Amino acid sequence: xxxxxxxxxxxxxxxxxVLKSVKVKELELEVEHRYFECSNCGExxxxxxxPNENLIxxxxxxxxxxxxxxxxxxxxxxxxxxxxxxxxxxLLGISYSTLSAIENGSLQSKAHESQFILxxxxxxxxxxxSRNKEMFSAKKIAELLSLLDRLIVEEYEKLGSESVI
Length: 165
Hints:
There is one protein chain. By secondary structure, the chain is an alpha+beta fold. The chain contains seven helices and three strands. The protein has a three-stranded antiparallel β-sheet, with helices on one face. A hairpin with a 2-residue loop joins strand 1 (about 15-25) and strand 2. Helix 6 runs antiparallel to helix 7 (about 140-160). About 15% of the residues are buried. The mean pLDDT is about 95. InterPro entries: Cro/C1-type_HTH, Lambda_DNA-bd_dom_sf, MqsA. This is HTH cro/C1-type domain-containing protein.
């Protein structure tokens, strides 16, 4: 699809990066935004294929400053336990659409972040699963608890091998 400037009709753009001051929740942040600038009139446009890219950059900077989990890490936690988005969301007590949005870049709430942190450790996840067994078939529970037991052992072995000096 051919890109065209809405101001002057030109179809030539150059990619530029601009440091922007933005506010995300309670934090004032400096975030590098990416734009496409018309070579003729200077009009700036967000990425034509990824219009939310700069918003996601803002959210990722906020996560980094707050030491919160990034969307990729949240997705990795879910996949570590072989859970679908619907299964993981149900365990955490959030909607499937909320989890999907967070995994795709939307900013999680502080309460969601706490749930993700709890589920990050196999022991925390086992507590969630044990309290919500009715959500799964007997077969799925058995598979999940077996996986969690194995991961708990691995986590403790890893802790034991990390000596404090």
